[in-house]
Amino acid sequence: MLKYTISLTKKAEKQLDKLPDKIAEPIIDAIEDLSENPRPNGYKNLKNRDGYRIRIGNYRVIYEVFDDELIVDVIKLGHRKDIYD
Q1: What is the mean pLDDT of the chain?
Q2: In whole angstroms, how far apart are CA 63 and each of 28, 79?
Q3: Of the four listed, 41, 58, 63, 65, which is most buried by Cβ atoms within 10 Å?
Q4: Which pTM does this prediction carry?
């Protein structure tokens, strides 16, 4: 099976850097898993915008998938109360 390349926007990188290691590690693992399966169990198609989201506890990762180029672009991540602004 083909692997997707993961890219993070600068905003997503900054948001990830601000998180404590205890919270960031499972999020990083989930993002890495997207390279093998960009639409895992529990993913949701976003309403009112392009892209998908996955849940990691109380945190969300919003991303887009470009199947023709095998790229997963992580746009934004954060706590569920702040992510959809």
Answers
A1: 94
A2: 13, 15
A3: 63
A4: 0.92
